[in-house]
Every structure is written in structure tokens, then in C-alpha cells.
Amino acid sequence: MKGSGRKGIVLAGGAGTRLNPMTTVVSKQLLPVYDKPMVFYPLSVLMLAGIREVLVISTPRDLPLFRQLLGDGGRLGMHFLYAEQAAPRGIAEALLIAQHFLDGAGSALVLGDNLFFGHGLVEMLAKADANASGATVFAHRVRDPERFGVVAFDADGRARSIEEKPRQPQSSFAVAGLYFYDAEAPALARRLKPSARDELEITDLNRLYLERGKLSVIPFGRGIAWLDAGTPAALLQAAQFIQTIEDNQQLKVACVEEIAWRQGWIDTAALERLAAGFAGAPYGQYLARLAREESAPLGR
């Protein structure tokens, strides 16, 4: 898929306190989800949207590890930059941190502990990317909407309200951790006031777009899975989900090297070199098999 010039942001900050002691010395977004680091999953979503320029935001402690893992992006035909979020001051602060990186471009912001998978996902990403004016977010039905930003719809299926962690949710649709914004987002984020928990709430930014009539909401259907790997139980469930999919299909989920290859950002010779870097590991064997089967059908 050809990108629109939109740039990507992966927000991989926070203290990860719900995963302690696993996160005592390392970011939760660097923990494994089955066979790859957690951050590969949100990064792969940006790649599937055709985005090749990505800013990774993390804590001063963890940022060197992300640089060591991902590098400058050149091996994937991409370009990665890095920035610090000194303290967890809200998701919307990522747009302020990224303002110079965006330099007037639209953005796609994804949370570093969110996983997305399912039939039709690429088409949904393309639809969001094509919306050059306004914001596009995604909604997923959940059993505990009071823990999330909640969007309610009118009779015609348009968003009519959005609330952060409401005591009495008006729907069971939570806003997932993936947001597409136009070039106005940093300026609008600058207008936000910190919430009671001293954070710039992404729900408040989305509400600004809603009040301007510029918020599009795409509900995820039955075929899309959204997983938030922010607790021990959720991390285990995510790993088991990925293992089941990969074992069943014999295709990897969120394999960033494969996606870069299938997008045409790297050639088969580059894929072979990447496979050699993981020699002896099943991950490397998978990449080597792909390189041998150059005419294999798409399987992202």
C-alpha cells in the first residue's frame, strides 16, 4: 500500500507498573509477545498503513534499548527517530513531542502495548489514511467500557459523544489505541488542559475533533482482534493468541522484515541478509523460507 505522506508515532513510554516486577528494569514494550518484542506489533500496523517515517517515544531510561533494537530503520527501508517523554503526562502529549518531527504532516499515533490483527485491517488502515482532513479513530466492543475512552453513536452510526472512563458508559465501544490525525493535531493538543490525573487526555483531543465535526470512527467488526498487553494476564493471552494464529497459518504476525519486503521497501537479497542475522532461530528460518519462496501469496 502506498502511503499518503503521513508520519507515524509509537508511544512506548510509561512505567509499566501493572507488569512489575517484569518491568523493573525494562520497558513493557520490549517484553516478548510470543516470538517477538511487543513493540513490533504496533510498529507493524504503521507499516501496513504504508508509513515509513516513524518517531518512537519512550522514557529516558528505555530509549537506548529501542535504538539498539530498531536502529535507524534503514534495514527495513524506513526511517526511525527517537524522542523522550520524561514522565507519563498523557497520550496527547506525544503529539507535542512529535511536532517538529511531523513538520506539518498528518500523523498516525499507536500505543506501544496495543496489538491489532484480523481480516480487513489493511483496508481499514487505508480508509483512515485517506482521510486527510480531521481525525479517524477505531472502536472495539469491550465488556468493561468504564476502563476506556468510550464512543457512543447516533441512529445513523455517526459518533455523537466520547467520554474518558465514564461511570455510566453510553455504549460498550472503547476507542482503541490507534489514532489518525491531520496536520492540526499538535496545535489542538496544545490547547488541552491537564486532567485530574495531570495528563493530556487523548479523549479530550478526540472530543475537539468531534465538536468540529471532523471525527470519523471506524468500528472493528467480528474479524478484528484488539489486544492491550498491559497486564500479566493480558500479556499471556496475547502471546497465546499469536502462537495459535502463527501455528495454524504457518505465517508470522507482525514480522516487520516480511512486511517491509512485501511492501517493496527492501528486496529479496536484503531479506536474505536479515534472515542470516537471525540464523539458528525459528524467526530467521522463517525469513529464509520467505526469501526462497519469492512468489508466495501475501500473508501479513
Description:
With 300 residues, this protein is an alpha/beta fold. The chain is 33% helix and 23% strand. It is built from eleven helices and 13 strands. The strands form four sheets. The protein has a seven-stranded mixed β-sheet with strand order 5-4-1-6-11-8-12. Strands 2-3 form a two-stranded antiparallel ribbon. Strand 9 and strand 10 form a beta hairpin. Helix 10 runs antiparallel to helix 11. It is globular, with a radius of gyration of 19 Å. It starts with 6 loop residues before the first strand and ends in an 8-residue tail after the last helix. The mean pLDDT is 94.
Class by alpha and beta content? alpha/beta
Helix content: 25-40%
In spatial order, strands of the major sheet run 5-4-1-6-11-8-12
Round the Cα radius of gyration to an integer and report it.
19 Å
Q: What is the arithmetic mean of pLDDT? A: 94
Q: What is the helix tally?
A: 11
Taking the alpha carbons of the first and last residues, their distance comes to 12 Å
Low-confidence segments, given as residue ranges, are none
Name the beta content range.
15-25%
- The general outline is globular
List the helices and strands in order: EEEHEHEHHEEHEEEEHHEEHHHH
- Main sheet attributes: strand count, strand direction, barrel closure: 7 strands, mixed
Q: Give the number of DSSP strands.
A: 13
